[in-house]
Amino acid sequence: MPISPYVREAGAGPAVLCLHANASHSGQWRSLMDQLAGRYRVFAVDTYGAGKSPPTPPGRDLRLADEVELVHDLLASVPEGMHLVGHSYGAAIAFKAALMHRPRVRSLAVYEPTLFAMVDRDTPRPNGIEGIQQVVREGVASLARGDAEAAARAFIDFWMGEGSYQRTPPDRRPALVESCRNLPQWSHALLTEPATLDELRQVRVPVLYMVGGRSPESSRCVAERVIPALPDVRRVDFPELGHMAPVMHPQPVNEAIAAFLDEIAVPTA
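^ that's the sequence the OP posted. Answer follows.
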C-alpha cells in the first residue's frame, strides 16, 4: 500500500506546497495558509515521522529523496505545477524536489535550507558546518544512552539559542523530545545528500532565499555557497531574526513569501 503524508489544505488558485522544519510539523504554516488562502490553493504536509505522517519505513536510512517521494502524488495531482515554500529541513526537501521533478516546481521560497552536505563537499574544513555536526554527534549519543531529552535540549539550543529548551513551557517539551528521536534520520538525510552545487545551477525557477542575521553559522554558510549557484535568486535578509523565525516571528517571513508569490504566481489583469 502506498505511503501518504498528512496534508492540510486551504484556499483556491495557484498551488503552493509548504514544507516544515525539523522538530516541527505542518501546523507551523497555519498563519501563512490563512494569509494566502484567499488567492492560492495552499497545502502543508507532515514529513516522515512528524505530526500525523507515518514514521520512516523500517530497515533503511532516510534520504531527502524519500521525503520528495512521500509528496510525489500530491505534486503530480496539480498538472500546472506547484510553488514550494520550505523552512530549514523543509527547504532542503524543496530544493531536492526541484531537482527531481523540475517540470512540477514553479518556484521556491526558502528560509535557510540545511543543505550541509553541499557545503562539506564543496569547501575544505573548517567550512562552517562543524557546529551542526557536533550537535548531531551529541544528540545521537544521548539517544543511544536513552536520554532523548538531552538530545532535544542540544538540538533546540543550537538552533534557537542557549537555554531555549529550558525556557520552553513544560507542557510543550514532550512533543519536542519525541520529535528529536528522529535526529539520526534527519542528520543522515542532510549530511549524506548527494546533490551538488553544480546540480543546483540547473534550478532555473525563481528562488526567494531568506536568511536570518542571528542564525548559527552552520545555516548561514549554506546561504553563502548556495545563493551564488542559483541562476534566478532574490535574497532577503532579516538582521534581527534567527533560524527559527518562520516559527517564532512568522509575520515578516510570511509577508516576504506572499510578496514573492504575488509577483511571480498571480496573473496580472
